[in-house]
Amino acid sequence: MTSPEFTSNRDNYCYRHPDRQSFVLCQRCLRTICPQCQTQAAVGVICPECMKAERKAETPAQRKARRRWRGGGGTATVVRSGRPMVTYVLLAVTSFIGLLQMIPDGFGDAITNQLGFLSYFVVPGVSLYPFEPWRLLTVLLVHGNFVHLALNMLALWMLGQIVEPMLGRARFLALYLISGLGGSVLAACLAPQTAVIGASGAIFGLMAALLIIGRHLGANVTGILVILGINFAVGLIFGGISWQAHLGGIIAGAAVAFVYTRTRRREQRVWQIVGLSAVVLVLIAAVLIVPRMVLLA
Hints:
- This protein is mostly helical and 297 residues long.
- The protein folds into 2 domains: 4-79, no CATH class; 85-296, Rhomboid-like fold, CATH 1.20.1540.10.
- Helices cover 61% and strands 3% of the residues.
- It has helices spanning 4-8, 48-56, 60-70, 85-101, 107-115, 135-138, 146-167, 169-190, 200-217, 222-237, 243-262, 269-296; strands spanning 39-41, 44-46, 78-79.
- Strands 2-1-3 form a 3-stranded antiparallel beta sheet.
- A hairpin with a 2-residue loop joins strand 1 (39-41) and strand 2.
- The chain starts with a helix and ends with a helix.
């Protein structure tokens, strides 16, 4: 379901495939293109028409070099498939670590202890725990049990199929990692003595981003909002679930999505990097200051 504003705005659809929604622009003509029409070039993603024009502008020496180094299969660009490869990699790595956690005789517990997160690891001097800030992100790789892992991976697979083609691989990965970081940070700030595991913060960040981007494009986001609300309510009702990490992922994911919606064009790329850097710096500052104040209070 889409709103009339969304349907009437053709800039939200691929210019070659009017029925396909996308959030990616050709970096030459700035028209919206779907994953099938995206070709990775030195300047970024370009559309087939710009690719054709680029080939016509080649000099004989450039054509010879292309045939030599690319085997005659194209220009010095690589056609990017519409497959959400970052999503697949995240699924594979996280699932592999999850399976290792199931190995008995203490091996699985050792992996959880090495990758899980607790605020003491980012507050040096307060306890005997070593300073290991990378746990803010490695926590995304470990889960409590098979059901926990399966539910998060199912959510990642479903959301990744939608969000990654809209944003592109680099933006999607940044969204996932910053959302996960936001989940760990808020868990450390609001529940500093509670150990946290799982990719739920990043998953909630993806849902929040889909909500923000969909609303920006004029889509009907009621269904996404309901799903997000139900999942967050589950974390509040049932024990053993870090609703703080969920909320942190939502806030960070929404912030990243806001940056994306305001810096969509090529000439705004620097501001996009600045915006994402600002979000990360705020999160780092929060996790270095707030948990220490709470633990020492």
